[in-house]
Amino acid sequence: MTDRTRALAVAVPWGALVAAAILAVPAALSDRLPDPLATHWGSSGIDGTTSATGMTVFTLLFWLLPWAVLVGVMLFAQPRTRAGRSGWWASLVGWGLLTVSMTCSIVYANLDAPEARLAGSPGWDIALVLAVAFGGAALAGFLGRGAPDQPNPAPADLPTVRLHPGRRTVWVGRVVSLSMIISSVIGVAVVVVAGATMLVGLLPADALWIMPGLLLIAVAGAFTGTVRVRIGEHGLAIGFGPFGWPGKHIPLDRIESAWTEQRTPAQVGGWGWRGLPGNTTLMLRGGECLVVAETSGKRVAVSVDDAARGASLLNALAAERSHHVA
Amino acid sequence: MLLSLDLSDPRPIHDQVAAAIRRAITQGTYVPGDRLPPARDLADALGINANTVLRALRELRDEGLLEFRRGRGVSVQRLPDPKSALESLARELVEEAGRYGYSKDDVIEILRGLP
User: Start and end of every HTH gntR-type domain (chain B) (predicted)?
Assistant: First the structure.
């Protein structure tokens, strides 16, 4: 069964089931419900009523239109990425649960009320409605995520260098993010200026609460504004900031191959650690990135200067190691 | 920056590190004004003491290849002149030849035989 037929085999009965619930719940309890129903609550109590038929029609549309869009998406623009599949399943299940639980909540509020204006008002069940919808969406998104995304295949001709026996060859690369350094410097400057202003009494001392936030920005900027990458017999080490910590280390025996790619923040979704587990990019600036494929199939990329030499050395070291092991 | 050290080379390590950095600057993507990776990173990667790397960097500064600036680290001042770059390549060629049992004269013969 393909992804699409499986998705439609669930979506069609699910659509019918939710629609049936929307019709059946108010209908089954119609002799205990007022008509019109209280359907909207404002800060001062009930501020909207709708006839029972009107509410059912509205709720049906509220469910069926998005449902039709989702089915259309699956038919004509099937999501191909893990994020796309997760989003589709989460929307299908979450929206259905939201609609049904909302209907139940309205029916519950109106239950046994002689007329709409005497209906109760939804309280804790609003939280329940949201919890059911989001919980269901999260579960469906997780179950429907499918196989990990297959990133661009590794290029056929991997760069390499000749390693001489008896020599220790290493590569050290670094990249500096100007924007993060600048934000860090500004953060520090504001902390200093604000602190001085408070000391001389120009700024009320109760504005002190902003200081930890600014300090945090400054420290975070200093820690993530530079990235250093080391390649050697130990494998690949990526370290943040002045102390190289926090960092990431991939030993040689987990490295399949390495190459360079041009990537931009727009492609990977911004700056910093980006992507889903299994295919992440550490992006500090657009341009040349070192891309590493692990034997487990994971991909790690880091934007770093002189990445081509690093990739060459990593390939040579990995090949030498597997040669020795074999 | 790609650096390579010969573990059996009898020369002092700081000389070897200086030669390796000189070579990396010669053949690398570095242009005058570019910053070198911090000495500690180079030392960590090579598995040697940071002071050894600093000593090598000072040698290269004294040669005029590198420039030390407070707060800005170490940057490339000028590229090695072509003759010293060739010399260091020739030295490596002779070393490589030695590993296969050829003498310097053998290398010269080979060079003569090239078109």
Answer: 11-79
